[in-house]
Design brief:
65% of the residues lie in helices and 0% in strands. It is mainly α and 164 residues long. The chain starts with a helix and ends with a helix. The mean pLDDT is 90.
């Protein structure tokens, strides 16, 4: 959809268009209510501003739509399609990296009680593994904040993709 089309949607339609970008009602309604936007960049900038910082409960709710890194999202939802497209750019991982990602995902879930989330776009499997291993060492509060920042980056990329 174009920015002009997005700007002209009814509020309910805009809300539904935004939900797959970041399923946080506060963010969705702020972005929808901020219309009309003059260009995609100003829309994405406004979306980044209203998202930051995401609250802990918002982060936990938004994570429900994200699969583990290295696992392909199933289903036909917009969130699943976004996730498959984002992880498709990673290509194939070698067996060692794939095994270490799976073990790291399990260790992360054990330590933090949620899936590991990272913006996959523009990163290799090796870079993701390095980040996973680094983030496993973080303080839980710092890690929660970093997870929120990753969600914000993903939302901005998805919103930009929606409007181009």
């Amino acid at each position: 959809m174009t920015l002009e089309e997005f700007n002209s949607l009814a509020v309910a339609e805009a809300v539904e268009a935004l939900r797959p970008c970041l399923d946080v009602d506060r963010w969705i309604h702020a972005v929808a209510d901020g219309r009309p936007y003059t260009d995609v960049e100003s829309c994405v900038a406004a979306a980044r501003q209203v998202a930051h910082p995401l609250r802990p409960a918002e982060i936990e709710a938004a994570l429900a739509h994200h699969p583990r890194i290295g696992e392909r999202s199933k289903g036909g939802s917009a969130e699943a399609r976004h996730s498959r497209r984002e992880q498709a750019g990673l290509g194939e991982a070698d067996a060692d990296v794939e095994q270490r990602l799976a073990a790291g995902n399990a260790a992360y879930e054990e330590r933090f009680g949620r899936v590991f989330l990272i913006r996959a776009a523009g990163r290799s499997h090796r870079e993701i593994l390095d980040e996973l291993e680094r983030r496993l060492e973080q303080d839980p509060d710092d890690e929660l904040a970093e997870t929120g920042e990753q969600l914000e980056q993903i939302a901005a990329l998805r919103l930009e993709g929606l409007l181009r």
